[in-house]
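Kindly go through the following sequence and its backbone structure tokens. Advise at your convenience whether the structure tokens fit the sequence:

___
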Amino acid sequence: MADPALKVYPNFASEAFAPIREALIQATNESAQQVTECLIAAWDAEHNIRVAEEAEQQQREQEEEELHLAKEEAEQEHREGEKKKPKMNNFDQATSVSSVIVPCPSQYALQRLNNFNHVDLWYLSPASCAKASKYNRSNADVTFGISKVDDILMLRSVTVVKASRNSVEDHDLSFEAFLQVKNNLLFYAKKASWPGKHLDALAEFFWNVETHPMCSNPNGNTTVLTYALRVHHSWHNDLKANKVFNIAIISDELMKNIDWEINAKASKECAHKASVHKHVPIHHTNFPFPSPPYCPIPPLALHPFSFFLCIMVLSLTRPTPALNPS
């Protein structure tokens, strides 16, 4: 809309306004100059009224806009304030507490699950959850550590970025503990919004490990737990590289290789213990004569009759006292 203040009066002395001037001259008996001046004065009066009305309109619109902006700003501040206020969620009056309360792990474990990272099963064990609960009640929230997110260093609560010094690798867990904590892992992975496809594969993986025939073999539990640890780690690493295998499919060849490795290690440890035991000397402090030569077989392990013969032979080795010539 054009600003009326910028308008100028028309040329009332021109030929276009001649009929109007003639009519006014005849009606007022004034001169042409006086009629022209009257037309200009009338136009100025009407123009000033329009300019004043336009100014008032603009003032009203500006005030309304400022009021609207102030109202929106107040509403925005109110919404932001409501967001910052702690809120208590609603509850279902017809639902009772669950028959099982799953213990809550540390913030470190939960953060790794939220980021779809691997977490040792120990962090989901009752012992670890109890430690985390006790630690969270202390002043740990005022302690911060540095973490790297998308190449940006950030200060975060130490409970989120620091691993526990007491953590135990999966293959060092007892088989009973493994059966318990893997369910806790699936529970909190679901709460962390893991895809259903991944949760189903992980659940099937744990079931196949738990029921694998290898468990009935000597050192079988150690074998399947070691298999679970290595495959679980590898699966998460491949997820980041986008070259993922189906973790639910058990590799019998890998299971046999790990079983051979575990049994070979156990045999080596047994041989080492036997070798150490074999070369430990036996000190007979209660004999009234010099200690006998070392016997590689512990005396108590001998047959009673053989032990008696051994004592008889040893007694013959005792020096004979010199006879008194008198």
Remarks:
- The mean pLDDT is 78.
- The chain has ten helices and two strands.
- Residues 195-279 form one domain.
